[in-house]
Amino acid sequence: MSCMLQGDEPGNTMTHGDVTPVNNALPAAGSELINHTDFGLGAARVLAVGVQFGIFTHIAEGKKGVAEIARSAHANERGIRMLLNALVGLRFLTKSHDTYELTPVAAEFLVRGRPFYMGLFMEGDWMWESWGHLAEAIRTGRSFRHVDTGQAAAEQFFRAYIPMLYVNNLPGARRAANVLMGKGVPEEGLRVLEIGCGSAVWSIAVAEAAGPQTRVTAQDLPGVLALTRQYVRLHGVESQYDFLPGDQRQVNLGTNQFDLAIIARYVHELGAPAACDLFRRVFVALKSRGRIAVADWMPNNERTAPPGPLMFALRMLLHTEEGDAHTPADYTRWLCSVGFTHIDITPDIGTDVPLIVGIKP
User: Does residue 196 share a domain with residue 158?
Assistant: First the structure.
């Protein structure tokens, strides 16, 4: 019996619902970009669930088979088998017969308790819940969950996010330190301020490059600074550090104290008025000829690329009142408006992060 519907004779094309007839033509473009983007959502979720079930930690502890991993994870064997195989396909695990092992990247970054563990931010569904409200945020213009106001919520968020930022920013921080120290360091060292320091990875690189005579004041929320101290200690530069607790929008930064002020991966939380206010207070805190160094995810001035900062702008819509992925032109205009001169831009010190340096006359 024929399965051909009426009107489906060879050479005819039917329209079902709202589908437009195509007359047997091939698409004018390939669908790989759509498929790749759609697949990325599932891949990211598989990785997060692997972290949440402690898969990488269980394997590091010697549990290599499906049954023993499932028991340790308190999960179903069938589900764990599928999850393990998906992680093999994503190259976070290897498989030989029925034994699973960690790849080098998983061993370095996904085992709980190891120095460069990046999984803390994936252990909860905080970001997944936020992205689920993207359409609502776009429709209303209102953020879903604030990280820019409310100390308790901000501290909880950043204590989970900072370990990931530390690993991702470490290479760029060292490149930035090379740029900033390129003309040498005074014999008496530098006085450095890092605002919204998080792990202090940016000022740590400067402290290491400039030597033990350099002193750093690390500023952030009190609950964040407890974590900052761990990273400073890890790098062996704790004796060079002082700590200034407080809200970046309000804390007193002093007057004519610093040779260098670093603001890295923070200004994206602010709109233009708050950013200019912060830059104005930094200007006051710097000595004459002192420098401000701003590093952040920035799209090009036309906001057409790279994709990372453009996607990051949507995260700011979800999580802040006025934040955005600001452009180099925005930063240049704001810095000049408060008195900085000789603005210099290093286009990319890593992961789509330019470094913008200005001088206080």
Answer: yes
Q: Name the residue with higher pLDDT: 183 or 195.
A: 195
Residue the block writes with tokens 């964040």? 224
Residue 14's pLDDT is: 47
CATH number at residue 117: 1.10.10.10
Strands laid side by side in the 215-220 sheet? 241-245, 215-220, 191-195, 258-264, 286-295, 355-359, 341-346
- Residue 234: C-alpha distances to residues 68, 225, 230 (Å): 34, 14, 6
What count of other Cβ atoms lies within 10 Å of the Cβ of residue 184?
7
DSSP for residue 123: S
Residue 146 covered by a domain? no
**For residue 74, is it left (φ>0), alpha (ψ between -120 and 50) or beta?**
left
Instruction: Name the DSSP letter for residue 145.
Output: S
Q: What is the DSSP string of 17-44?
A: TTPPP-TTPPPSS-SHHHHHHHHHHHHH
Rounded to two decimals, what is the model's pTM? Answer: 0.89
What pLDDT sits at residue 22?
Answer: 60
- What CA–CA distances, in Å, run from 323 to 232, 258, 270, 271, 311? 28, 27, 4, 5, 13
**Tell me: the pLDDT tens digits for 83-126?**
999 999 999 999 999 999 999 999 999 999 999 999 999 998 88
Instruction: Tell me the pLDDT tens digit for each residue of 328-355.
Output: 999 999 999 999 999 999 998 977 799 9
Q: Which residues contact 104 (CB under 8 A, 6 or more apart)?
A: none
**What is the enclosing helix (H) or strand (E) of 357?**
strand 355-359
HSE, CB side, 13 Å, CA atoms: give it for residue 267: 31
| Residue 346, strand partner residues | 355
Q: Which two tokens stand for residue 359?
A: 């001088």
Query: What domain count does the chain have?
Result: 2
Cα separation, 269 vs 322, in Å, equals 7
Q: Residue 216 belongs to what domain range? A: 151-359
Q: In angstroms, rounded to a whole number, what is the distance separating the alpha carbons of residues 52 and 45?
A: 10
